[in-house]
Amino acid sequence: MKTNKRFLLVGVLGLLSSIGPFSIDMYLPGFPQIASDLHTTVAVVSLSLSSFFIGISIGQLIYGPLLDRFGRKRPLCVGLILYIITSAGCALAASADQLIILRFLQAFGSCAGMVASRAMVRDLFPVNETAKVFSQLMLVIGVSPIIAPTAGGYLTAAFGWHSVFVVLTIMVSLILAAVYFFLPESKKPDRSISLRVKPTVRNYISVIKEPQFLTYSFTGALATAGLYAYISGSPHVFMQLFNASEKLYGWIFAIIAAGLIACSQVNSFLLRKYRSEQIIRVASICQAITGATLFVFAIVGWLNLLGSVIIIAVFLCCQGFIFPNASALSLAPFTRNAGSASAMLGAIQMSIGAISSATVSALSNNTALPMTGIMACCTISSLLVLTVGKTIIRYKVNSEGIEEETAEMISTL
After folding, report:
1. Per the CB 3.0–4.6 Å rule, which of 194, 277, 315, 387 could disulfide with 199?
2. Domain boundaries, the chain
3. Where is the Major facilitator superfamily (MFS) profile domain (predicted)?
4. 3-409, which class in CATH?
5. Long-range contact list for 34-40, CB < 8 A, 24+ apart?
6. pLDDT along the chain (413 residues), means of 10
């Protein structure tokens, strides 16, 4: 593939992947203003974040079979149109309940881009290059936590929180145009893929029964759930406990996210010497230690604004290594039903993320303990899943063997 064509392709796929993160991050600085305007609390407003996660979890399971049956572009364009309509609705929301419902529907459109982009990476690139491509996508995806909260903070301060959703509407309209004109169809429609409930469920069961998928999808999902706990809890921790302004919060979020971007790019260089499984294990151990340290510091009262930023930055740096390798290892065994596998991967990730986010909101007690405790629990659980799953994968490799391309991604266990 020519360099210019590859750059354009990865750029469009990255933009599709960034719709979800932008939708999550951009309105976070506006939580206090939204709560004031809609006559509710920040904790209630944060439920709109949880409803978004739930919508993405359900929506991805719907889009997966559609992407396998009708090709990638048609369902993708329908989803983006749905996103544009519901984003405009969010800008006009007159109550917290309306915002929560509209965010749920907005998520259905958002997840089309997330599922399609992962499936198209599997379609268009050799399996032993997918981890590098996911790292490149992280460069685009990672820009959203830098730009989105900062831009959201300035937009909210200057024009009110409604302007955030106006900008999202315009942004995705431009992405839809890029998809239509520049993104190739990577998979022809397959009429043999059934959309009936039983065959669809059987297809998803076959995906889940693959030990490699199960291990690395849950490893990545649990680690990412720690990130979502941070996203959900950080407005309260930074702006209310540590008295950071909306603009300062946006910059803090950006600085922390910069570490995630940098590490995702370092991951591309490490893949020249090390295999994905080796990298993800070291990163998981480091993240578990960091998460536990953060929680202990919160318990004993040692956390302050600067200390929190430093420790959380290290925590998310580890995520820069975990996400691309977990995604690549999860999807490696699949070809014909890559759309369904991508959907299941995203659904697992977002459903656990929704639980994590909702738990932080439910346990809110005017301290940093809910956020830091959930972050620690998620990343330690991720390491445990990885450790147990490796034993299962090793047994399958020894007893059944695996495809040569997939084997190249996995180190000697």
Report:
1. 194
2. 3-409
3. 6-393
4. mainly alpha
5. 34/96, 34/99, 34/161, 35/96, 37/160, 37/161, 38/93, 38/94, 38/95, 38/96, 38/99, 40/96
6. 76 88 86 91 86 84 85 90 95 93 93 86 80 77 71 89 95 94 83 79 87 93 91 86 84 82 86 90 96 95 91 93 90 77 83 85 89 96 94 72 48 40
List Cβ neighbours of 135 (8 Å cut-off, separation of 6 or more).
Answer: 264, 265, 267, 268, 271, 324
200: three-class secondary structure by DSSP: helix
Q: Specify whether the backbone of 301 is left (phi greater than 0), alpha (psi in -120 to 50) or beta.
A: left
Give the C-alpha separation, 81 to 172, whole Å: 9
Residue (of 5, 49, 45) closest to 23 by Cα position:
49
Cα–Cα dist 146/141, whole Å: 10
18/6 Cα distance (integer angstroms): 18
Residue 330 tokens, joined? 């999860």
Q: Which amino acid, one-letter code, is at 315?
A: F
User: Which position has the token pair 């302004």?
Assistant: 245
The structure's pTM equals 0.74
Query: Rounded to the nearest 5 degrees, what angle is found at the Cα of 92, between the Cα atoms of 89 and 96?
Result: 95
For residues 367 and 220, give the distance between their C-alpha atoms in angstroms, rounded to a whole number: 27
